Amino acid sequence: MSFRFLNKACIIKDREKDIASDGSASKRWNLCTIDQVEELKAIIKIIPIWSSSIMVSVSSSQSSYHLLQAQTMDRHITSNFEIPAGSFGVFIMLAVFITAGVYDRIFLPLASKIRGKQVTISAKKRIGIGIFFSILDLLVSAIVETIRRKKAIQEGYIDNPKAVINMSAMWLIPHNILCGMSEAFIAIGQSEFYYSQFPSSMSSIAASLFTLGSAFGNLLASLIVSIVDDITSRGGKESWVSDNVNKGRYDKYYWLLTIMSILNIMYYLICSWIYGPSDVKAASEKEERLTIRANRVHHEKEAS
Fold first, then answer.
1. Which of 104, 179, 241, 244 is the most buried (most CB within 10 A)?
2. Max intra-chain CA distance, the chain
3. Neighbours of 289 (CB within 10 A)
4. Nearest C-alpha neighbor of 260 from the set 46, 58, 65, 124
5. Per residue in 37-52, is it b (16+ CB within 10 Å) or e — as a string?
């Protein structure tokens, strides 16, 4: 979409009323510069793709529930060493660093050597890969929680959420790895995408969009938990997100998030298709078209 209707905001209708003596707009709310209009277009166009990352932030903000799971599982690596329940997040950070390093230093050079030419993955594809890994993360979390809860009930700990069941906490590591891989692809892909699609004057906005998406994701996660808790606890039933992790149904909660994430990736694919090309060449061509348009409007103003 070109949003051509916004061009009306920079059209001079009455030079005497719209232009001040110093050449600036007499009323900035009535007359905008071409750069301002194009920057607004860029933001509006980017919002659908940006919004698709919010659901990824929802899936990565479930660390408190994984902490409850880890507390009920055997965290011993050896008989003398036990991983603290709150330290499993380290595996997420390790996965982020390893994924970024392997992708940039091993995968791309190796793929380029095999194909005999430079191989790159577009920013939009990286974002899509990150969303896909977030779906796998939630899927694995749902399966692991189903197994963990079943074992807790079989061992008679349904009323004792602090009891340690006969199940290794290493089952949680695949979730951490997938979560880290998702964050690596999403963070790098989004940053590259925003910087390549925004003009240089909007670099600060490009840098803050990923953080803004994470903030919205945390808010949405809290809203989802509140809604799930309210609906599932009606009639005196045990809430899916109960403090008692054995009585609660965190497995169903993860399945719900998985379904929402599948819908989200479908939404992303549609938004990506509507957005069109976003590689460096397309961005440079777009900038060139904007320059030509700006010069044309400038000449039209001079002629009038």
1. 179
2. 86
3. 10
4. 58
5. bbbebbeebbeebbeb
The CATH number of the structural domain formed by 33-303 is: 1.20.1250.20
The domain segmentation of the chain, as residue ranges, is: 33-303
Tens digit of pLDDT for each residue in 255-282?
999 999 999 999 999 999 888 776 544 4
Which residue(s) pair with 19 in the sheet? Answer: 25
Phi, psi of 82 (to 5 degrees): -125, 130
| Structure confidence at residue 283 (pLDDT) | 47
Q: How far is CA 258 from the centre of its chain?
A: 15
SS3 string, 14-76, reads: CHHHHECCCCCECCCCCCCCHHHHHHHHHHHHHHHHHHCCHHHHHHHCCHHHHHHHHHCCECE
In degrees, rounded to 5, the angle at the alpha carbon of residue 35 between the alpha carbons of residues 34 and 37 is: 65
Q: What is the pLDDT of residues 205-263, one digit of tens each?
A: 877 888 888 889 889 999 999 999 999 998 888 899 888 899 989 999 999 999 999 99
pTM of the model: 0.81
pLDDT at 98: 93
- From CA 266, how far away is CA 50, in angstroms rounded? 14
Residue pair 124/193 in contact by the 8 Å Cβ criterion = yes
* pLDDT, greater one: 245 or 297: 245
pLDDT at position 255, please?
Answer: 95
Q: What tokens appear for 18 in the block? A: 């719209």
Helix boundaries (H) for the chain: 15-18, 34-51, 54-60, 63-71, 89-102, 108-115, 123-154, 173-197, 203-232, 250-275, 280-303
